[in-house]
Amino acid sequence: MPTPEDQPRDETVPPRLIINPGSEAIPYALEESAGEAMRAYFKEVVGEAPLEQARVRRASNLDDNGRFGYVLTLTAGGGVAPRDVNVLMPGLPVDVLRQGVLRMYVDGSSWMWPYGVNIGRRMINEELGERSLRYGYDAGLPDERRLVRAAWGARAVITETGGIDLLPDRQTAFGPKRDIDELLANLNLDINKRWIDRATSLLSTGEMSSKRAGEFILVADRDITVKANTNASNGYLYVCAYPTPHIESS
């Protein structure tokens, strides 16, 4: 009877266990393909986000196993320091990457294409979220800050009978200069009068009170949205205005 020592041995090497599928080395990667994929990634992540600046530069020192290094620099403006995001892009056609077969690396973490795009967008939201209205109703701005190209805010002095005093040194704005200028021009054209008239009416009827917190949409049209809240401040009305976001249906 054959003993275990007499049994034929399998000399084949077992396949390498891949803990994180899609993160393996890419032997036939091309830098040109990685560059095209990075341009597509930049377009999907940055899009029309109201950054002061966004740019990509090649970083060959980051290259690793068929993934090519890039640095995506996001500048939100408004005094917020630029943020550098390291991206390792597989050197394969973007159509292949969109199928979710290989992972990119974004700031050290690996992601299939759609998740990598979402992570990039989240980082932009974080950067834009650092922008805030020093005066005004900052909490009234959309949570998705990528949609806010510019915003204006003010802390107005009010009376319970409807008096509203808009002080020049208690107003603020953020965003690229051209977008701020366009927003302020629209406000000065007729929007300020509209929201002030509406707030005056709400105060005089008692629906709005500086003794009770509550959000009011004072203007909402296809161009401008204006919101306000007294925050139960006993004498102040916090206001914000921003271009109404237009979300394209997919």
Can you tell me about this structure?
- With 250 residues, this protein is of the alpha+beta class.
- Helix content is 26%, strand content 25%.
- The chain is built from four helices and eleven strands, in the order H-E-E-E-H-E-E-H-E-E-E-H-E-E-E.
- The protein has helices at residues 31-46, 94-97, 113-129, 177-205; strands at residues 53-58, 67-75, 83-90, 104-106, 109-111, 151-158, 164-165, 171-174, 215-220, 224-229, 236-243.
- The strands form two sheets. Strands 6, 7, 8, 9, 10 and 11 form a six-stranded antiparallel β-sheet that branches. Strands 1-2-3-4-5 form a five-stranded antiparallel β-sheet.
- Strand 10 and strand 11 form a beta hairpin.
- Helix 1 packs across helix 3.
- The protein is elongated and about 75 Å long.
- The model has no long low-confidence stretch (mean pLDDT 87).
Number of helices: 4
Largest sheet properties: 6 strands, antiparallel
The percentage of residues in β strands lies in: 25-35%
- Global geometry: elongated
Helix and strand element order: HEEEHEEHEEEHEEE
Q: Which radius of gyration do the C-alpha atoms yield?
A: 27 Å
Helical content (DSSP H or I, runs of 4+):
25-40%
Q: How far apart are the termini?
A: 70 Å
Which parts are unreliable, with pLDDT below 50 for 5 consecutive residues or more? none
Structural class: alpha+beta
Summed over residues and divided by their number, the pLDDT gives a mean of 87
**Beta-strand segment tally:** 11
